[in-house]
Amino acid sequence: MSNPLTSFAAIHSAVSLAQQIGDGLGTFAFAVSGALLAVRKNFYIIGIGTLAAVTAVGGGITRDLIVGRHPPVAFTDLWYLGVALAAAATIFFWHPPRKLTGRPLDIADALGLGTFCVTGTLTAFQFGFGAPSATLIGVVTAVGGGALRDLLAGQVPRVLRPDQEIYAIPALLGAAVTAVLVYFDRLTDLTGSLAALGAVALRLLALHYHWRAPQARADKRSQ
C-alpha cells in the first residue's frame, strides 16, 4: 500500500479547485446560518454580521491553529470574510420573519457541516497528519463555527445538547470517509463531493426523523 501522504500530494492538484469551491460553499452556508440565528435572536446589523463571520470562519481558525498554520488563513485571505459579510448582508436586507428562520437555518448549517468536514480533513492531510488525526480535525472544522455561533447567541451548542438531533456524527462520518478515500488513493472531485453530500444527507435525515444520540441511563437508585 502506498504512503497516504504521498498519494495525497499526487492527487492534490486534481482536487484543489474542488476543495476551494467547497470552502467557499461551506463559508457562505455557515455564514447564512449564523445570520439567520442572529435574526431569530433579534440582533441588529452588527450582531448579524458578527455572528455570520464567526460561524463562517470559526471552525477554520480552530483547524489552522491545530495544524500549525499561523496566522490562520481567515486573517490572510480576506475573501473568506468577504463571503461571510455578503451572506450577512443578504439576510439583513431580506430580513426574514423569525418564524421562517428555522428550516433555512438547519439546511444552511447542514451544508456547512458537510463541506467543512471534508475540506478540514483534506487540510489536515496537507499538513502531514495521519488519517485518524485528520478525521478529528475535519470534525473540529465542521462543528467549531456552529459551536461558537451558539455560544455567542447565548445558548448551549447543539453539538452538546441531548435534545438535539445528531450533529457531530454526520461530520465524523464525512471526515472518516474522506480520510479513507485519501488513504486508498480514491479521492477525486466526485468521491469527495459524495462524502460531503453523505454528511449533509445524514444530518437532514436526522432532523426529519429526529434521530438523537443515546444518553447515559440514569441510576434509579440515586433518584
From TrEMBL:
The entry's family comment says: Belongs to the UPF0126 family.
User: Where does it live in the cell?
Assistant: Cell membrane
Keyword flag Ubl conjugation? no
InterPro entries, sorted: Gly_transporter
Q: How does it sit in the membrane?
A: Multi-pass membrane protein
* Keyword annotations: Cell membrane, Membrane, Transmembrane, Transmembrane helix
**Source organism superkingdom:** Bacteria
What organism, scientifically named, is this protein from? Answer: Nocardia amamiensis
Name of the featured protein: Trimeric intracellular cation channel family protein
Where's the Glycine transporter domain?
A: 23-95, 107-181
Transmembrane segment boundaries: 42-66, 78-95, 124-145, 166-184, 190-211
